[in-house]
Amino acid sequence: MAYIAGVGTTRFGQHPGSTTPGLMADAARLAMEDAGLERRDVDGVLCGYATTMPHIMLATVFAEHFGLKPSYAHAMQAGGATGVAMAMLASILVDSGRCKAVLIVGAENRATGQTRDQSIQTLAQAGHPDYEVPYGATIPAYYGLLAARYMHQFGLTQEDLASLAVVMRRHAARHPQAQLREPFTQEQVMASKPIALPLRLLDCCPISDGGVAMVITRDPTNAARVKVRGSGQAHLHQHISMARDWADMGAKRAADIAFAEARMGLKDIQHLAVYDSFTITLAMLLEEIGFIARGKSGEAARAGRFEIGGDLPLNLHGGLLSFGHCGVGGGMAHLVEAQRQLSGRAGDRQAGSPATAYVHGDGGVMSSHVAMILERV
């Protein structure tokens, strides 16, 4: 059995003068304190990649920097799904008895540690080197293509996407560490600067500096007692030019594996933490997994289903769209919020007393999917 014993996040936004190891250490320190553990208690370290520090041995670089001597260390990269993938591996490590306590970390000074052009060029490499990258496409362009096709196929509208952005910003306004907290309206989203139509500026997540960490243990170390009940992955394609069915990108397949392992179903879930790099990402994931009917995610947002008092409270920290996106740490923040909600420690954002949560990470362009189900015991 694996427990998410401690979590920690830095403020997201701009941290001038920050470094990737420094942000990793800040988040790790908070997670260790939250778990009630000392450095000597940690025998496993997992860390995500960092575009501002592309070291070939980042896990041991961090372990050295933070003063750890783990018996297991591993750096991972699965795009935006990396954080949930690390949590899945950590739970396997403690379940198997290989480790007792695994520290997982994702952090990056992505906003201040590189220029805008460097960021665009780095992220664009997610495209196919022969069929996509040479034509100058960027990550927003790839998702813009997804949005146009999906909206045509299932009747999702610009208003629907804007409704999702409004909800995420409303949630972020309650979180003191969120990067973007100023509220806006559906009309303002639709009037914002075109980025890759139909996606506009407020349909896209910001680039952030920030760090997130958590400790996964074999036994509970405090009163949080949030355990991993099930997890699953699916990888049907890497590049969208190779995707065969944009209604089946792999999200439901990963979710089905996690639900089967947890012996649960969609109706058992009381809290959602779903990857939202763009409004279309969130809509497609919610609808493919089955939480919302096809083409109805915007309608659900306007009906209040994703609010604190709704039947499917969603990304109550503000998600990537408003809390911010610092790379691997951005996706990990969804896990942190789920753990805090289940342990009743979300403050003004607390949505009742949920016993279960579903977390989903998406890497690439709807390429790699990792699902995780958490339960309070």
If you had to describe this structure to a student in words, what would you say it looks like?
There is one protein chain. The chain has 377 residues and is α/β, with parallel strands linked by helices. It has a domain at 3-113 and 208-217: Thiolase/Chalcone synthase (Peroxisomal Thiolase, Chain A, domain 1). Helix content is 36%, strand content 19%. It contains twelve helices and eleven strands. The protein has helices at residues 20-35, 58-66, 82-96, 116-124, 139-154, 158-172, 186-191, 251-262, 279-289, 297-302, 319-322, 328-342; strands spanning 3-9, 44-48, 72-76, 101-109, 194-196, 199-200, 209-217, 226-235, 272-274, 356-363, 368-376. The strands form three sheets. A five-stranded mixed sheet has the order 1-7-4-2-3, sandwiched between helices. A four-stranded mixed sheet has the order 8-11-10-9, sandwiched between helices. Strands 5-6 form a two-stranded antiparallel ribbon. Strand 10 and strand 11 (368-376) form a beta hairpin. The longest helix is centred in the first third of the chain and has 16 residues, at 20-35. The N and C termini lie close together (12 Å).
CATH architectural name of the domain at 3-113 and 208-217 = 3-Layer(aba) Sandwich
Order of helices and strands: EHEHEHEHHHHEEEEHEHHHHEE
- Helical content stands at 25-40%
Poorly predicted runs: none
Mean pLDDT: 96
Q: From the alpha-carbon coordinates, what is the Rg to the nearest angstrom?
A: 19 Å
With strands numbered from the N-terminus, the spatial order across the biggest sheet is 1-7-4-2-3
Reported for the largest beta sheet, the result is: 5 strands, mixed
CATH superfamily of the domain at 3-113 and 208-217: Thiolase/Chalcone synthase
Overall CATH class of the domain at 3-113 and 208-217: Alpha Beta
Global geometry: globular
Distance linking N and C termini: 12 Å
The CATH topology of the domain at 3-113 and 208-217 corresponds to: Peroxisomal Thiolase, Chain A, domain 1
Number of β-strand runs: 11
Instruction: Tell me the number of helical segments per DSSP (H or I, 4 or more residues long).
Output: 12
Strand content: 15-25%
